[in-house]
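User:
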Amino acid sequence: MYIYPSNGNLYFSKGTWKIESNIATCYNSGANFCFTTDAFVKGNKNIILNFDMPNVTKGYAPILAWRINGLMWQYAHITNQMIITLPASQNDATESPVMNGIANHYVEIWVRTISLQKPRWTWNGQVNNNIVTLNSLEIADNAKLFETTLNDITMLSIGASFTEGYGTVGTEHADFKSNDVTCCWGVLLGNALGFNVATSGYAGSGFFAHGNGNSPPVGIAYKYMDNGIPRDYTGIDIAAFNIGANDSGVTSTDFIAAAIQMIDDLRKHYPNMILLFTTPFWGQHQTDWLKIADIYKEDKKIIYLNTVYPQLSGHPTITNYKQYILPDLIKQARNALFNTNIWGGSQEIIKVQSPIMNQNVNIKVDNLCKNITIKRV
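Assistant: Predicted structure:
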C-alpha cells in the first residue's frame, strides 16, 4: 500500500518542505518528518521510502537518518528506494492485545546531511544539486499509520555551520565532523526543551557572506528555500538564529541594519512568532547583537541570548555541548521562553500535593502554549 505525503498522519517539519501534488521536496539538511505505524509487525514488516534526487551528483548523495521509538539513529546515503526495518535490538513489538498497542512504533526520518561541495541553490545558471523529493511510503496492505500527538511548540533554527554542520558527506556520527545536523545547536536545544525542531543552515553564510556550494546569504535564505520558492513560517512558534560567525569585516552599521531589516520583515508577516537570537559561540558581532537587543528591548517576543564560550576552540563537538554549552544555552532559553509571559496567554501558579515527590510542588500553567513545569517548593 502506498502512503503519500498528503496523508494527514505524516508530520513534516515546518518551513523546510514544499508539499504539492502528493510529493514533498526539501532543499537543505535538517528537514524531517515523523509518523506512527504498525508496519513493523504486519505483512512484510518493513517500510519502503521512495525518493527522487533529480540533480544529485554521483558520489554526493545526501545522508538519511532515521530512528524508531527515539532510540539509536541509523544512517545511509539516500537512494531512490530505501527499506527500513526494525533493528533486532528494538524487536520488542507484539500484536498481543495484552500489550495494548506496543505494536505501534514512532518513526523519525531526517535529511541529515547534504553536500557542501556541490551547488546548493538554483541561480546564475546552476541548479541545486541537493534537492530531495519524497514521493511515497510503502507499507503492507494490512498495516496503517496512526495519529501522533506532537509537542506543542515548533522551532526552526537558522544559521550557518553551527546550525547545519560542516565537512564532507559521510555516514559516521562523530562529534560534528560529518556535517551532522542532529549534532548541532538548534536540534540539541529544541530536543532538550521538548520542541518539534528543524533547521535551515548553510555553512559559511552570514548576513553578507555566501555559504558553501554558492548558497545565498542569510538575508535571502531565511525567506526562500530555493530560488523562487518562499519559506513558509506558518505554524512555527519560534525562529531561532545564530548568525555572524562568517561576517568578518562587516561594519557594525551594516550588520545591525541587515539584522533590523530581517527582524522587521518577520515581525510584519508573523507578528505572533518569537524570534530568538544567539551570539555566534566564538563571539563575533557580540557588541552588535547587544545593540540590536537594546533596540527591541520593549518587544517581549524578540529574545537575545548571550552565548559566547571563550573555552571553545574550533567548531563545537558533542563533548563541548555536553560540557559547557548546553547547560548554559538551555538554561538561558528556558528562562527567557517560559519564565516570562511572552506567549500572550495568562499564567497562574497553583499548589498541589504530589504523591510522587511526597511534597508540595508549584505548577506553572501557561494557558496558551500548554507548557507545564514542575518545581519543588
